[in-house]
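name: query_chain
kind: protein
chains: 1
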Amino acid sequence: MTRPSVTLREARPDDSEDVGFLTEVWAEVMRRCDAEDRAGDVVSLAARAAASPDERLILAEYDGQRAGAVLLRLATLTPLNLEPVVQSLSPHVHPAYRRKGVGKALVEAAAAFAEERGVAHVMTASSSGSREANRFMARLGFGPLATLRVAPTAVVRARTGAQRAPLRQPGQTRQLGQVLAARRAVRRESA
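structure:
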């Protein structure tokens, strides 16, 4: 008996089954909105990737069934380090197809895209809470480059001292609130 094989192909923005699968498998990493808007986001991603020589949206199929996906994008290592890199964004395998070679095939697709474009490095990211995904990437040779942290703007503002005076642009005079506070202080002193 032969083992089912993993095949790779580009996702099609006009295929509702591709869009539905991608919306489901990437649900945790996409913006929080209704399913229709997420499906629209997937269509936009797939159309952009199909039109760009620097992007590919790859679907992995296992025995003819959609099993995983990854978005590949040519970029720079960081906005400051302009060394080219292939970003392997959100490589996900459907839970029913894990440990069947699908994840490895997606990483191989990223390496092939990098070689095709003459790029020396591939980078990816996995959720900090996903021990299995992080161990998988480490086994394939990926090491940590940075730790990305995220917080709501309101929390950052509260914890960095929002009561501080806002920064002024060159040539900008004091804010109205500062002017009024200074006038109140002068009135209190003279009363």
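note: The chain has a mean pLDDT of 90.
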